[in-house]
Amino acid sequence: MTIRLEAVRWATGGTTIIETMTLAFAANRVNVILGPNGAGKSTLMKLAAGRLRPTGGRVLLGESDMLTLDGRALARTRAFLSQHVEIDFAISVEEVVLMGRYPHFSRAPGREDRRIVAAALELVGMAERRHRIYPTLSGGEQQRVQLARVLAQLWSDEADPPARILFLDEPIASLDVHHQLHILETVRALAAQGCTVIVTLHDLNLALAYGDRLIFLRDGRLQAIEEPGGVTPALVQRIFDVRATALGDADGRVLRFHL
């Protein structure tokens, strides 16, 4: 399923956050949005997901304007994981993940919904904590539970699953190295199963290792779109103001950075 931005712009309070931008995300691939702090990565994600209304231009899902689509139907094919999800009341881990199934049932969850919740928790390594009260978890554990929630929202066991889109805004920011890699492996597997993934990351080396298409922003402007093999030290310096040299990798995909 293709998402396209056509001359999209977003401004607030007299400040332009996203300059006029035309961009198509690669379907069934891992699209990584990269850039320094304040580049507009999270805002671009929200625009592409239909969570913000563009000041100018439009966002298309297939041939339809994202903002004209039925919200419940859209929620069954598009999920969004924010950087920070605040839940400060006593609710179990299992019930948080069950929120992802809300678009799929009308009054009460069924046996299939409960099975999918259990499978999603198992996938992120949180099955043993399913009865824990969510606010008592560490930040990294909470992030894994939230990932399970969006996975449950888009879950499909079909051999030929329907088109789905997963937006992940800094999904590994609070995770240790083991869980960072586990989550990114899961993301890669979803793309291989026909899910379009759009993710923001800060770690350029992880983006090179797991991304199919790298989208570089700076100051709210689209700077470059590259496959991992096309990322050069000159591009890195232009975007991040650091020098980069390749280390011990035949593809030149492991970088060391210098001021």
Automatic annotation (TrEMBL):
GO molecular function (one): ATP binding
Listed PROSITE patterns: ABC_TRANSPORTER_1, ABC_TRANSPORTER_2
Domain of life: Bacteria
Nucleotide-binding found in the keyword field: yes
Domain ABC transporter: 3-244
Biological role stated in the UniProt entry: Part of the ABC transporter complex HmuTUV involved in hemin import. Responsible for energy coupling to the transport system.
Protein name per Swiss-Prot or TrEMBL: ATP-binding cassette domain-containing protein
Organism listed in the record: Sphingomonas quercus
